[in-house]
Specification:
Radius of gyration: 20 Å
Strand order of the largest sheet: 1-3-2
Protein name: Lysostaphin resistance A-like protein
Structural class: mainly alpha
Keywords: Membrane, Transmembrane, Transmembrane helix
Organism: Flavobacterium gyeonganense
Domain CAAX prenyl protease 2/Lysostaphin resistance protein A-like: 142-241
Number of domains: 1
Order of helices and strands: HHHHHEHHHHHEEHH
Transmembrane segments: 16-40, 64-84, 107-127, 139-159, 180-197, 203-223, 230-247, 267-286
Number of strands: 3
């Protein structure tokens, strides 16, 4: 069982707090190249160092900015793997899935399912209001974006999944010895990590329902499937397709996407729609394909260890 793989007598919750600090430090180390580049750029151009995140995101060419941003996630992922292996004495497989090996087919199914839906949804919106978008396709910058995005965005999304749906979910499970507490806590923390995104400033706090709801969805498919392969695929598709397909001057990622969204951001039913309509449909599709049962027990039940699992 997935959550039980992290529950051991020596895995006290204090270790998870310490491990989280190590991961945060690793992430800060990964931000050094971006900071150094900003300082160097300001020095050579004789301009002031940007004092806010929005200004910093616009200093460099978008592909370079994306590359520098993604480096910190690579460091954070390395930090997470180090903590799992050397602080908790677990295998990386044990925080990924309960299966004997990582199921690549599950990752790909989830990826292409959500990628297809995302593209179809954009085309529907575009055909309804083409005046809200402007074609931004530039072959060379776009191809560079494809390379950078394909290589590094899955690292960013996998980092978040390994930390929230893997490491912290098992940590909270060990603390509470049930399933609902790690599901709720990781969803709340995951949502709060997006608090400083420019989307929140533009659309208001209601957008947090989307971020927390997405965290809840990713946690549910992880618990129901006894592994986070589906979450890995979904998250990678969500961010990669978004970066390649459409951007705006107020989104967290400024990229050489195919289109630019000119519409004024607003938070209405479109924020709630994925949570109350789309995610339940995806849960239904996944449940039928992978024969999920015992929903109440897997999402809210207590955890009882029947054997000690060693890794």
């Amino acid at each position: 069982m997935f959550l039980e793989q992290g529950i051991k007598p020596e895995n006290s919750f204090g270790k998870y707090i310490l491990g989280s600090v190590v991961i945060i430090i690793a992430s800060f180390v990964g931000q050094i190249p971006f900071t150094v580049a900003l300082v160097y750029k300001s020095f050579t151009d004789k301009t002031a160092i940007p004092s806010d995140n929005d200004s910093a995101m616009k200093v460099f060419e978008p592909n370079l900015t994306l590359f520098l941003l993604m480096i910190s996630f690579a460091f954070a992922l390395a930090g997470a793997f180090y903590v799992v292996r050397h602080l908790h004495n677990q295998s990386i497989l044990s925080i990924t899935t309960s299966r004997r090996t990582i199921d690549i087919k599950r990752i790909l199914f989830s990826f292409f399912l959500w990628a297809g839906f995302s593209i179809a949804s954009f085309l529907f919106v575009y055909l309804q209001s083409p005046e809200q978008f402007v074609l931004n396709f530039k072959p060379v910058p776009f191809l560079i974006l494809v390379v950078i995005g394909t290589l590094l965005i899955p690292i960013q999304t996998s980092t978040e999944e390994y930390i929230f749906r893997g490491y912290l979910m098992q940590g909270f499970a060990g603390l509470a010895r049930n399933r609902w507490f790690p599901l709720v806590m990781t969803s709340l923390i995951f949502g709060s990590m997006h608090w400083f995104n420019p989307e929140v400033t533009k659309m208001g706090n209601i957008i947090m329902f989307y971020y927390i709801g997405t965290g809840l969805f990713l946690g549910m498919i992880t618990l129901m499937d006894e592994g986070m392969e589906l979450a890995l695929g979904f998250h990678a598709a969500n961010n990669l397709i978004g970066a390649l397909l459409v951007t705006s001057d107020w989104s967290v990622f400024q990229t050489h996407s195919v289109f630019i969204d000119l519409s004024e951001p607003s938070a209405g039913f479109d924020v709630i729609f994925p949570i109350v309509i789309i995610y339940p449909i995806l849960l239904f599709i996944f449940s039928k394909k992978y024969n999920w049962k015992n929903w109440k027990e897997k999402l809210t039940g207590d955890i009882t260890l029947t054997e000690i699992i060693k890794y």
